[in-house]
Amino acid sequence: CAQSGGGSADGPKDPSEIIVGFAQVGAESGWRTANTKDIQAAFEDAGIELKFSDAQQKQENQIQAIRSYIQQGVDVIAFSPVIESGWDAVLKEAKDAEIPVVLTDRAIDSTDDSLYVSFLGSDFIEEGKKAGEWLVEEYSSSTEPVNIIQLEGTTGAAPALDRAEGFADVIAADDKFQVVESQTGDFTRAGGKQVTEALLKSNPDVDVIYAHNDDMGLGAIEAIEAAGMVPGTDIKIITVDAVKDGMQALADGKINFIVECSPLLGNQLVEIVEKVVAGEDVEKRIITEETTFTQEQAVEALPDRKY
Ligand code: GZL
């Protein structure tokens, strides 16, 4: 008589017997690469088999990977939904196959929260608010208009929607802040560069660029320099993530403020998997801890950054 959660009559499964299927978004940014490395290392250390797939930022590839994990009869499926919507059908198939699903990093917009056992990741609205709060403080003594270009993450992705929402909520406090343009750079450096090049032509007097991740901010730096301007001085830049390349640009004065978004979810994901397989309760929502960095703090923190 197997215990619930895959254990046998003589106790929970040994880690070496557990198989997890992980459907990753892609490899679009430094954050994603660090997230993948950390998850793979954590499962390696735990002695748990991790089947891994890279969806190249395409939802249909993630759905295909989840279906293949269902067919293989893995013990747990975990994934970071590239966009919020369109998951109910495939997650219903996982539920019908009695395979628990863990959301990591990004959320889904399904109203049926029985489709997953836990969601582990950052509070992106809070991250957007932190970015807005720094900007309000930075311009607290100015009454002049502050023209902002927003580089959005992947269209429909939870971090893009929520970082925009949190930021807008805070800067609404003063109508001197105006988001004059807002376009997606798809969380990539190339995307950030292309969009910034185009928008600088139509908005040469922009004061601030708010990029939903470091990689798009780094692309914006290239575009600003190519236009003969000084990033961090002529145009202030706020980004989210705090990966090494972003922190280096912050320390060099090319970015002005970074809101951290931790990619180090591996150990917490292993813990959730072990509890689920042992039939123990897990928290429905686990919010990762993270901070913010000014230029001075980046200089201090850089030597110890793990990613
Ligand atoms: C946030 C994560 C985002 C990062 C980007 O948790 O989903 O996706 O901010 C990454 O760098 O591409």
From TrEMBL:
Localization terms from the record: Cell envelope
InterPro entries recorded: Peripla_BP_I (IPR028082), SBP_2_dom (IPR025997)
Record-level GO cellular component terms: cell envelope
Gene3D superfamilies in alphabetical order: 3.40.50.2300
Coiled-coil stretches: none
Primary site of residence: other
Superkingdom in the source lineage: Bacteria
Single GO MF descriptor: carbohydrate binding
Keywords associated with the record: Signal
Family: Belongs to the bacterial solute-binding protein 2 family.
UniProt protein name: LacI family transcriptional regulator
